[in-house]
Structures are given as C-alpha cells and as structure tokens.
C-alpha cells in the first residue's frame, strides 16, 4: 500500500523564474514518508553523505575545514534509521573539494564508532588525496599513498571504498600501470572493498582514468583488473551517468561482484533491474531523498514494483537538477536539501561551496523537492527558502 497523499497545501511563496519574473508558487500535496525502515530490503543501499560545516568557526572556509561533528553524525544516524548504509568521506562529503585527508580520517573514525554502537553499515573512502598531484612522481608514490590511507581506515575498524586517484590519473598511461597499482593495493586489504569509478563530470582531474579517454577501452581495462581481483572486491560503484555502460559492465562482472549504481540520473530503473540482473545502490542523491529511497526500496522488497516506481520516480527530476552540469557542484543541492528539511540550522558549506549554485537553481530545487513530496516539514522549508531568497536580495 502506498502512503496516502494529504490534501492540497495552503502554503505558498514567491519564487524567481528564469525570465526575471516572480511567481507565486503554491506547494503541492505533502507525502510523508516513514522515519524508519519499514520491512526488510532486497537491495544493499548506501547513501554517500554530506559533511555539516560549523558556521560559528572562526576559520577561512577556502583554506581550512571546520566541522559540526554532532550534526554530522546525527545525519548519519538518520540515514541508518532508514535502513541505508553510509558511504563515508566520499565526494558527497566534499572529499578533495574542501575536506582534507586529516579531517576525513577523523570523520571516518567518528562514523565507524557510531556505526558499531548500533551495528549499522558503513564503508569509507580510502584514496591518495593527501599526495598532491604535482608531488606524485611514480606509480610507487601512488601505491604508498593508497597503502597509507587503507591502513588508517582499517586501523579504526573501517571497511574500504577504494576511491579513484587523481595522482594515478596523471601518471597511469596504460592497462599495465593501472593493474600494477590496483593489484598491489588489493592484495593487501583485509576485507573485500568497493571499487569507485568516478567519471570526469564529477571530477575533471580524473579525465582519462584507466589510462585512456576511450570509455569502451577503459571499461575493458577496468573489468579485467576487477575480475582478476574478484576475491578482494565486494562490488563496483560506477558514476558515469550512463545507464547502458553500467548495465554492460554489470553483466561482465564476476558473479561474486556486486554492481552499486552511482548513476544519479537513472537510479530507479537500474535498481529495479531487468531479467539479467539489477544494481545495488551507492548514491549521493540518497542523502537528499533518504526517506523516499528507504520506503521505495521496502516496497520493491515486498514485491510491489509499481509502488517502488511511484515513490522513487518523482525523485528523479530533482536528482537530475541537483546533478546537472557542472556536476561537481551537486553537493550544494544536497546540503540545501538538508537545510530545508531541518537536519542543520544553516546553509553553510565546507569550502564556502554554498556559492556554487545560483538562486534560480535553488528555487527550482525547492519546486522539484516539493513535487516529489520530499519536504519533510513544508512550513519550515518554506520559511527557510524565504530566508535564503532574502539573503540573495529577493523578497518573497
């Protein structure tokens, strides 16, 4: 059974439009979702989660990091309550885009400890981002950097998501170079890891990953390396925003290896799957839509595929808007959703990245979130939207 839709809201506010006019926007019918998981799931679903900045810190946001640890961990507990796993210290947390390695390790340490207190699922990003790209001289430098971070995460009891490396993208010339690095690192991990293939739309520094700009050849190289290390690989997260490439790769993976969709444009159909298989999920958008994602996944597990699409389908236009080009700025929309929904009391981001999206972008985000039933408290969200508009000189 789908959750009942409430009567049309009486709330409205004035929102800017692209033609420089202002419209009176009336909120749609609300659609409350359960605050906790309803029933078992038949997909593994991770939310890559954001970091809550400390707005009271006297720091230089472009140069140093200040984290509100209580709010940051509280958001992870919200995700765990919904039956989702946490993908920690990934690009959604602004890893390598404001969040440095020492702060990432502290975040991982705190998150792993919180997860263990409730027997919750968390995997954490290990990469090479403490090695400045300009200082990477050889593949051995890249291997040592990976080893350092993997060891640090495992030392605090964490499971690994092996992140793509900017340094390797600079130095790796061919399949042999990538095989040397991945084979060496994977041979040492304690438990199977998730491999993260992050497309250059998320991080331009990863252009030509796997040693080639030809995605067909890159796929061949990646599949060969991953399947060759199948005993050390739990799964693969692909973030290319290309559903057919993900499906093709999914069908080529060793049967022991899971596919975790990272496609924030097409996740609903990829998770639902087809006659030949399906994808699990490791998605940044699940940060913003966690209650709907949890409920939709519970409907899918109950055999109600129509209910799954009824809930998750309306979230896709919002996700495509949040992740629109330049895709690397999607974190701004994710944090804005957390602000609208009361998970934090401010719209301040690590690195000052609240400035990377326009007022019009945020106004359209509000409309799409409302239409998908994702404003948990419409009155609060409306007031906060008005506050942001006023800050940007638009009286609503």
Task: Walk me through what this model shows.
There is one protein chain. The protein is an alpha/beta fold and 396 residues long. Helix content is 42%, strand content 12%. The chain contains 15 helices and ten strands. The strands form two sheets. Strands 3-4-5-6-7-8-9-10 form an eight-stranded parallel barrel, surrounded by four helices. A two-stranded antiparallel sheet has the order 1-2. Helix 8 links the parallel strand 9 and strand 10. Helix 1 crosses helix 2. The two termini are 38 Å apart. The N terminus is likely disordered.
Shape: globular
Count of strand segments: 10
Structural class: alpha/beta
Element-by-element helix/strand order = EEEHEHEHEHHEHEHEHEHHHHHHH
In DSSP terms, counting alpha (H) and pi (I) runs of 4 or more, how many helices?
Answer: 15
Which residues sit in consecutive blocks of at least 5 with pLDDT less than 50? Answer: 1-7
Tell me the major beta sheet.
8 strands, parallel, barrel
Roughly how many Å apart are the termini?
38 Å
Compute the gyration radius: what is it?
Answer: 21 Å
Helix content: 40-55%
Strand percentage lies at 5-15%
Average pLDDT figure? 96
Trace the largest sheet across and list its strands.
3-4-5-6-7-8-9-10
């Amino acid at each position: 059974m789908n959750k009942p839709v409430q009567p049309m809201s009486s709330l409205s506010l004035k929102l800017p439009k692209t033609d420089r006019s202002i419209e009176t926007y009336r909120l749609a019918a609300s659609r409350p979702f359960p605050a906790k998981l309803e029933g078992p799931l038949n997909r593994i679903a991770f939310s890559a989660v954001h970091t809550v900045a400390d707005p009271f810190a006297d720091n230089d946001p472009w140069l140093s990091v200040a984290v509100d640890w209580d709010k940051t961990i509280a958001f992870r507990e919200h995700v765990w309550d919904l039956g989702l796993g946490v993908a920690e210290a990934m690009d959604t947390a602004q890893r390598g885009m404001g969040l440095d390695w020492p702060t990432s390790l502290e975040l991982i340490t705190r998150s792993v400890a919180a997860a263990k207190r409730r027997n919750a699922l968390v995997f954490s990003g290990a990469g090479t981002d403490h090695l400045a790209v300009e200082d990477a001289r050889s593949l051995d430098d890249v291997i040592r950097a990976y080893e350092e971070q993997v060891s640090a995460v495992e030392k605090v009891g964490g499971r690994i998501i092996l992140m793509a490396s900017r340094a390797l993208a600079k130095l790796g010339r061919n399949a042999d170079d990538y095989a040397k690095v991945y084979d060496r690192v994977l041979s040492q991990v304690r438990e199977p890891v998730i491999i993260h293939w992050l497309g250059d739309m998320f991080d331009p520094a990863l252009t030509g990953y796997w040693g080639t700009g030809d995605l067909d050849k890159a796929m061949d190289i990646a599949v060969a390396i991953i399947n060759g290390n199948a005993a050390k690989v739990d799964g693969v997260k692909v973030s290319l925003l290309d559903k057919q490439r993900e499906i093709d790769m999914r069908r080529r993976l060793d049967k022991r290896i899971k596919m975790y969709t990272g496609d924030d444009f097409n996740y609903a159909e990829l998770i639902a799957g087809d006659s030949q298989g399906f994808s699990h999920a490791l998605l940044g958008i699940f940060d913003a839509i966690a209650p709907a994602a949890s409920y939709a996944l519970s409907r899918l597990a109950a055999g109600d595929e129509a209910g799954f699409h009824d809930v998750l389908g309306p979230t896709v236009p919002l996700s495509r808007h949040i992740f629109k080009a330049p895709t690397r700025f999607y974190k701004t929309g994710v944090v804005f959703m957390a602000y609208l929904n009361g998970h934090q009391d401010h719209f301040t981001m690590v690195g000052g990245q609240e400035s990377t999206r326009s007022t019009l972008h945020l106004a359209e985000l509000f409309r799409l979130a409302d239409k998908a039933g994702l404003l948990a408290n419409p009155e609060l969200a409306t007031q906060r939207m008005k506050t942001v508009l006023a800050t940007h000189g638009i009286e609503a």
